[in-house]
Amino acid sequence: MGFSADLSGKIALVTGATSGLGERFARVLAKNGAAVAITGRRVERLEKLKTEIEAAGGKAFIHPLDVTDVGSIRACVDNVWEQFGPIDILINNSGIGEPTLATDFTPEHYDKVMDTNARGAFFVAQAVAKRMIAAGRPGKITTVASLAAIDVVKGLSVYAMSKAAAAHMTRALALEWARFGIDVNAICPGYIVTEINEGTWETDLGKKMIAGFPRKRIGKPEDLDGLILLLSSPDNGFMTGSVIVVDDGQSLG
Ligand SMILES: NC(=O)c1ccc[n+]([C@@H]2O[C@H](COP(=O)([O-])OP(=O)(O)OC[C@H]3O[C@@H](n4cnc5c(N)ncnc54)[C@H](OP(=O)(O)O)[C@@H]3O)[C@@H](O)[C@H]2O)c1
Fold it and tell me: Which stretches make up the Ketoreductase domain (predicted)?
């Protein structure tokens, strides 16, 4: 059965829809009636996803996007708005992990993680909110931060810093945009199996990590369906500035 929300007539822009969580979010939003603008750098994957969403009765629009390039962000948001329609929902999801010990980070590698996860998330939110504000339309912006925004993990220092920035950004933007009817929230997932961490769970370290979790398991992208629908639903009108941990208790103990 699963969760549901009435998103008919809404347009959602999903960043990082080429795999993992973003791909799942696009499918779930489309299944619940939203027309979805799916974005990312790997356009061939977007084409496959569009075909599948449309075969299931949904509506999708493809636009390439590199969130490290502010010109690409602005072109994407403007083209989606003008060619597909005004954006009601943003799922600000693009991100990279890049586990590296702090002593091994180069300035270039540091910039890549920060430019994707923090700077990119900021300028995507800014581009969408500017259009919503100019059009006098309310909206829902949900940024996918991470449990690493709150909890630190060895080898993920810069990732954790970038996600802490994305989480704190959420509260700052919620404060500025509340008066425009734009709800800005963030989710902080625990470990969910996707390409960002594939290969980890079969290693000795991965097995040890799972054994340490209270439920001795990692999540699946569909475990976030209900939360992403709640934060995208026009029926949810009393949440903004929330940074929500959704981790199956992985951070406990
Ligand atoms: N899986 C987890 O355990 C977990 C836990 C907490 C938080 N998260 C967060 O969830 C989000 C989605 O990650 P995932 O787990 O679904 O990993 P994933 O399968 O690797 O997906 C990452 C997505 O980000 C996109 N992306 C990366 N760099 C980009 C760029 N420069 N411009 C535009 N898009 C870019 C990728 O698209 P292209 O490569 O096609 O551009 C891809 O669609 C990330 O922000 C991640 O930090 C994941």
Answer: 10-180
Domain encompassing residue 224: 11-245
Specify the residue for token string 């995208």. 232
Active site residue 159: yes
Instruction: Express each pLDDT in 108-139 by its tens digit.
Output: 999 999 999 999 999 999 999 999 999 999 99
Q: Which two tokens stand for residue 230?
A: 């709640």
Measured from the Cβ of residue 198, the count of other Cβ atoms closer than 10 Å reads 11
* CA 40 / ligand 1 centre spacing (Å): 9
Helix (H, G, I), strand (E, B) or coil at 55: helix
Contact partners, residue 2, CB within 8 Å, separation at least 6: 222, 225, 226
Share of the chain above pLDDT 90, in %: 98
Give mean pLDDT, residues 17-30. 98
Number of domain units in the chain: 1
Apex CA 185: angle with CA 111 and CA 5, to 5°? 125
Mutate to test the pocket of ligand 1, among 66, 94, 210, 245 (most ligand atoms within 8 A of CB): 94
Looking at the DSSP bridge assignments, the partners of residue 36 are 12, 60
Q: Is residue 28 part of a domain?
A: yes
SS3 245: strand
Q: Is residue 108 in a domain? A: yes
How far is the C-alpha of 8 from the C-alpha of 114, rounded, in Å?
35
